[in-house]
Amino acid sequence: MNRAFNRKKDKSWMHTPEALVKHYIAYNAKFLGSTEVDQPKGTEVVKDAVRKLKFQRHIKKSEGQKIPKIELQISIYGVKILDLKTKDVQYNCQLHRMSFCADDKTDKRIFTFICKDSESNKHLCYVFDSEKCAEEITLTIGQAFDLAYKKFLESGGKDVETRKQIGSLQKRIQELETENSELKKQLQGLKEQLRVAHETPAGSISMKAPCTDMFDMVPFSPVSPMVLSPARNSQSPTSSFLRPAETRRDLFGAEPFDPFMCGAAEFSPDIQSKLDEMQEGFKMGLTLEGTVFSFDPLDSCC
Fold first, then answer.
1. 90 in helix, strand or coil?
2. What is the pTM of this model?
3. pLDDT one-digit tens code per residue, 122-174
4. CB–CB of 33/56 below 8 Å?
């Protein structure tokens, strides 16, 4: 899907972008409940869910139970479902996890959306009675999704795949650097053996050659190599430890490229995983649809 969302062509957004970016739009509604569905999209999918939850509602009503009243807070950060009195957050549905949102064309009060649960990864269908504001709420969610998707792209989300590829290349370069460093140390050991062999005077007792491994290589020693300082005022050369270079460079002589410095900040693995998830969610898109859920609209007394 090339577009981030599908919406009814004869409708336009109802709110200013600032209202959804810096604040939120609130609606009061009654929460019929949520139920698991087997598909992320589809009119028939939500029809079955609405029918199931409406049936459960009638049973609860016959038992004297009231339908809970809630407040919906819609912004680019998601759709929060709060208890109307206590303002406790019951659910927080992130927009990139939403895939389908629809309102009933015959019963102007009923609307629903499908959202993927963050813990179980199951698709849940949420159903609400919104006092004849179903279409407006659906469009508000669609507008919030549109703005959130654009915000995600502006913040560097479109570079997620590129960053992953660059990160893989950087890892390979680091592996080659390590391998190159080990080979240099082995080569330095061989040169040292040759130098000692050529400098030993004839007839003198030669120093004990360093132990070698099964490949006739000098074992790697973690001690830093020694370098000789130039003699000053006829004094003997003094030795000192080799200081590491201030700027680390790769085997090509260039400074290693940090793929995550091209964005606003450096991302840790868990944040990168979150970006990948958001990219996949927004790529799926949110489908808005006006449909007929059933031929038996809820009674006016709730």
1. strand
2. 0.57
3. 999 999 999 878 999 999 999 999 999 888 888 765 555 566 666 677 778 88
4. yes
